[in-house]
Amino acid sequence: MPCLARFSGIPWFNSGVSENATSGQIQLCIPGVLACFQCAPPYVVATKEDENSIKREGVCAASLPTTMGVTAGFLVQNALKFLLGFGRPSTFVGWESLQDYFTTLRLRPNDQCADAWCCKRQKEVQEEGLTLEDYLPRVQEEKPTDGPLHEENPFGISLVDDGEEYENEKSGSHACAETRTPACASSVDDLAAKLKSLQS
């Protein structure tokens, strides 16, 4: 999918979880506008070192369902904002669960990216004068109407001031509580007496 996105210019979403499963990140990639995988590769990849050197012998990547679930939720929510046009989609969100620390930023494309398609898209975006705002959905705010929200009221529902009724109910509940207190106290005494008689 990343290759297809760079080739066709289709926006795509990415997410990932750290090896120790305590942090995650989501990313929106718009070819030519936002960074792709090759624009900001991990250090070990950028320096062309052996990726096996960062793996510890006999240790596999951790898996924590809660971290996976939270990260997946962020990803789906971001995709829905983009597709349905509500709120503002995030370009990058990083989450560190041990300290509940969030990072939001915009990863700009690298003009020296190793991916030829990414560089081609960057050139097209510059020539056409496009920005990130041109790709994000425009949210149209609904203007409030002067009239009632619902013209019809088939069930006859109406709003009334119930402050006085609430005070009456409140005072009534106190009265009931006061009348019940002696009964509760006597029943507890009776139970205590019965318990003492059983023990003797």
UniProtKB/TrEMBL annotation:
It holds the Pfam family ThiF. SUPFAM superfamilies: Activating enzymes of the ubiquitin-like proteins. Residues 136-153 have a biased composition (Basic and acidic residues). Signal peptide: none annotated. GO terms for molecular function: ubiquitin-like modifier activating enzyme activity. It comes from the Eukaryota. Residues 136-156 are annotated as: Disordered. This is ThiF family domain-containing protein, putative.
